[in-house]
Amino acid sequence: MPRRRSEAAYARARKVIPGGVNSPVRAFGAVGGAPVFVSHGYGSKVVDVDGRPYIDYVMSWGPLILGHAHPAVVKAVRVAAERGTSYGMPTEGEAELARRLCQAIPSMKRVRLVNSGTEAAMSALRVARASTEREGLVKFEGCYHGHADPFLVKGGSGLATLGISSSAGVPDGAVGRTVVLPYNNVEALADVLKRHGRSIAAVIVEPVAANMGVVPPKPEFLSEARRLCTKHGALLIFDEVITGFRLRYGAVQDELGVRSDLTLLGKIIGGGLPVGAFGGDAGAMDLLAPLGPVYQAGTLSGNPVAVAAGRATLEELSRKVYARLEEAARELAKGLLQGAERRGVEISINRAGSMLTLFFGPGPVVDFAGASACDTKRYAAFFHSMLAQGVLLPPSQFEAWFLSTAHADEDIEATVRAADAAFARL
Known about the structure:
The structure is a single chain. The protein has helices at residues 4-14, 71-83, 92-104, 117-132, 172-175, 186-196, 221-232, 252-256, 282-285, 304-317, 322-343, 368-372, 376-388, 409-425, and strands at residues 38-42, 45-48, 53-56, 110-114, 136-140, 161-162, 178-181, 200-205, 235-239, 262-265, 276-280, 348-352, 355-359, 391-392, 401-402. The chain is an alpha/beta fold. The protein has two domains: 4-69 and 320-425, Alpha-Beta Complex (Aspartate Aminotransferase, domain 1), CATH 3.90.1150; 71-317, 3-Layer(aba) Sandwich (Aspartate Aminotransferase, domain 2). Helix 2 packs antiparallel against helix 10 (304-317), helix 3 runs parallel beside helix 10 (304-317) and helix 6 (186-196) runs parallel beside helix 7.
């Protein structure tokens, strides 16, 4: 069926917004066609401006773990907004949210609220550099830490790629002290820290990668990263913007048994509104102004409406919802694998809790090179077949699918049936 109103809305948007979208992946560039323009959402569904409903596995790229327009979140937002949308002064609510975060994540003794994951990452790096009096940064191919200059580095196929910007407008000097390594490669990390350890301020990593598709860590990867950082005096930063409160109540680092020095949060802790956070031990965090010399500020940080949404979301998540999420995701992955096998289509699936990625290619996918080798054209065809059947997937092979507590058994069953038909067409 044509999506005439979405196509018309896209044409109008392109006249006033670069590319017609305010975040690049929304443009459907990886799969082709005009993007879906959404009218509203409820539970596990979104409805486009043409009036067509879709089972949604984008879920605003992860924050909506309770589904769209959850009554408790909507009520909290309404009550907060009626009292005022911003004060530029501290509130009890933001302190309460910070307290809950610190209670849920033992490695965080102090936390600073910001407005996005990008802000959290760039601020944590500044703290790490001040704490260690070093400037070097190690990151991993396929891990995304926001669009601040130091993180926008193109990874190569060798042991490390140094100082090559992957975005126009980012000077080489901004990334010249960033080293990129293959994800899940302990040997590469050990080699770089052995050679450059005295200049490395921080190693930043997604403990479960979710920006090249879902790629879990190998058993020894994070524990060795912890040991090596401690040995060489670098801070270990876990980017849990996606995984925080997604796979368990708190941070996935505690489930994996490896604690970071600094932790980044976002997505879920804002309940669908813009929020980020970063935290760690008091020694590092108390370097922040007004206590210390590291400057970081934001007029809307700790915004009362966003904080209210986050607190309501965490309250709901504290009611033991994760077993149900795990079961739903497991059933979805099982149904997808069975459908592909029945139709003779080669796929592999990586799953961590309630997020998963279907890769068109042989598995296992353990790093960015493996993810990049998958058949993106097949994914695009699969995406559009699913869309036509009322299932909205991420418009890129290299993104995670997210489930919510609102995804019912009938949603999973309908998705599996649609996938079977899509596999048959492939």
